Amino acid sequence: MSITARCKGETTVRFSRMGLALCAAALVLGAGATASSANRLSLNNSRFKMVWSEFRFQEGAVELVCPMTLEGTLSHTTFTKVAGLQVGSVTVARFGTCRGGSATFLNTLPWSLNYRLFEGTLPNIANILLYLPSVAVRLRDSIFGVQTECLYAGNGNELGLQIFALRESSGGIGTVTPPEIGTSFIEVSASAEITCPRRITTGGSGTFGTMTVPPTTNPLTLTLI
Predict the structure, then answer these.
(1) How far is CA 85 from the centre of its chain?
(2) 142: helix, coil or strand?
(3) Rounded to 10 degrees, what is the CA torsion of 172, 175, 176, 181?
(4) Residue 16: exposed, middle, or buried by beta-carbon count in 10 A (0-12, 13-18, 19+)?
(5) How does the average pLDDT of the chain come out, rounded?
(6) What is the distance between the alpha carbons of residues 151 and 9, in angstroms, rounded to a whole number?
(7) 68-72, 86-90, 145-149: which has the minimum mean pLDDT?
(8) How far apart are CA 53 and CA 189, in angstroms?
(9) Where are the alpha helices (DSSP H) in the chain?
């Protein structure tokens, strides 16, 4: 018995059952090869600006909500999906007036901006996770009625200040957000006051910001190549 089918868009031909099976296998392998060969990510600009009207630092009795801005450049607009790869640098970092206390960045710019992972099923990427491995911040807050100053810093790995860049169906990245509360945090300095929580969570539910190409309001575009 033979069956009429079309393989890889070629002219319609007649296959035996075995021929049809081989054709289907070729299609599957071809699709797999396409997905596996797409191992690089490409961004359409080398500059970025991330802005949050509310960025949270919280743990136990400590909760600060601050406007926060990060700006910088990408050293790689095209890069391989390798965890830990430095893809850019933060050259501007500032806080606005916080609710619940105050926050100040401490360490000297620029800071390394690293790639961690992507979420989604190739070739459809939902978001990519970036992180700042060595950011340091001073938080002033009232803990149990006592004015307290706490120093926190990333420990050089992916558990520092993490940022998800959310990819829209068009490829644009217009929104950035930290992971859910409890998964991204910075550690307390050894010299901090004893009342300071051992670590502070960065982000949490509802902490959404924007990511644009300065000086415009256009989003970055992320593609898989």
Answers:
(1) 13
(2) strand
(3) -130
(4) exposed
(5) 78
(6) 62
(7) 145-149
(8) 27
(9) 17-37
Q: Give the max Cα distance, the chain.
A: 86
Here the tokens at position 184 are 């991204």
Structure tokens at 95: 């806080």
What token pair was written down for 18?
């075995």
Higher pLDDT, 35 or 183: 183
The residues facing 206 across adjacent strands are none
β-sheet bridge partners, residue 150: 139
* Distance from chain centroid for Cα 142: 31
pLDDT at 135 > cutoff 90:
no
CA distance 107 to 109: 7
Q: Which amino acid is at 27?
A: L
Does 91 score more than 90 pLDDT? yes
Residue 193 bridge partners (DSSP): none
Q: Is the pTM of this model over 0.70?
A: yes
33, two tokens: 């090869």
CB 114, CB 86: distance < 8 Å: yes
Q: Which residues are paired to 174 by β-bridges? A: none
CA gyration radius for the chain?
23
- Count the helices and strands in the chain (H runs, E runs): 1, 18
Alpha-carbon torsion (110, 115, 119, 122), positive or negative: positive
